[in-house]
Amino acid sequence: MSLPFVDVSPFLKKGTPPSPAKDTSAKSLFDACHDVGFFYLKGHGIPKETCDLVLDTVRNWMLTATDEEKATIARKDAGVGDGDGARGYQKIGENVTLGKSDFHEAIDLYATHPLAPPSPPYQPLHGPNLWPNHLFSDIFTSYIDQILLLGAALMRCMAVALSLPEDHFEPFINPSFWVCRAIGYPPLTPEAIKANPGGVGCGAHSDYGCWTFLLTDETRGALKVEGKDGEWIDANPVEGCYVVNVGDMLMQWTNGLFKSTVHQGNHPPTLDLLQRYDGLMLTYMGIVVHLGSNYRVSVPVFFEPSWEAKISPLEGCIVKTGGKALYGGATYGEYLLGKVASNFYTEKQ
Ligand SMILES: O=C(O)CCC(=O)C(=O)O
Ligand SMILES: [Fe+2]
């Protein structure tokens, strides 16, 4: 089985009248979110050059910045220096899923918190983003702005799919408390597997918010999506498309009509990419890891509700799912705080 396709192009321009093309897109979105929770998004209008620039920016920095440079933007616990417990660079193994270290390094970025103070100490998620440099920040800020427009377009498509007015979700997503991760996956060596049995590139999880727009390089065999019968479906990259998935908030909003599907990032078994980085290496738990062969880069942008948005099951969705609300309602910011707190090894663990 492979993932379905959804064409968002009829919804890109806000304020356009209803049309058969919109109805077709909305129907395919409904089916994809209901049946799988994952799909290829086409017709998104973001140029390939923009996507390549984002991926190259991450790859270049991850593979050329020194450990000291990486440490200057390290994620720190909330209240420690400029740390807010979430933003910044995480070295390999620092991220944890289901009690196992994930075999990746990443920079985590978030929208500005509505109550962000001007200087430290910072409460969890209240700090500023820790950027590697100005160019990185300019490229990512402009890219994320484009994804936010796309996220809003997909919310309009979702509204039509649920027979709601197109602008129904607007008050809940403005401004989106977006999240972005710039992730690098070094090859998962036999030695690394031995040092961390059961650990993978990114352990099995669901995402937290509305839509994840996943941009990756062309490495295949990495992302796996849990299918209905427990089989793992390959979500290999498709040129010109985003891999998009439903997050927990959409599942709650739709009372389970849309699925927030479990997925995991295996490390690709093949050594097929990026010969140009041959010779570069880093050390993980005393193990030398060669980066040249199949270092994978992945940049998910998570399009989320606003920090204060209250998400509870929609009446129409309750009716379609047996007449009982399955979720009690959540404030997105609080939900996110709970999730982020369990994502890292901290001194307390
Ligand atoms: O790197 C990938 O392909 C998936 C990453 C992911 O699922 C996540 O960061 O939530
Ligand atoms: Fe994910």
Bound molecules: 2-oxoglutaric acid, fe (ii) ion
The CATH topology corresponds to: Jelly Rolls
What fraction of the residues are assigned to beta strands by DSSP?
15-25%
Name the structural class.
Answer: alpha+beta
Span between termini: 40 Å
Tally of contiguous helical segments: 9
CATH class value: Mainly Beta
Q: Care to describe what's here?
A:
The chain is of the alpha+beta class and 349 residues long. The chain has a single domain (5-340), classed as Sandwich (Jelly Rolls). The chain is built from nine helices and 18 strands. It has helices at residues 20-35, 48-64, 67-72, 134-161, 170-173, 190-195, 248-253, 315-320, 332-341; strands spanning 5-7, 38-42, 88-90, 96-97, 100-101, 105-110, 179-185, 202-205, 211-216, 223-226, 232-234, 242-246, 263-265, 281-284, 287-290, 296-303, 310-311, 330-331. Strand 1, helix 1 and strand 2 form a beta-alpha-beta unit. The longest helix has 28 residues, at 134-161. The chain is globular, with a radius of gyration of 20 Å. 2-oxoglutaric acid (AKG) binds at residues 181, 183, 202, 207, 214, 216, 222-223, 263, 265, 298, 300. Pfam families: 2OG-FeII_Oxy (PF03171), DIOX_N (PF14226). Keywords: Iron, Metal-binding, Oxidoreductase. This is Fe2OG dioxygenase domain-containing protein. InterPro entries: DIOX_N, IPNS-like_FE2OG_OXY, IPNS-like_sf, Iron_ascorbate_oxido_reductase, Oxoglu/Fe-dep_dioxygenase_dom.
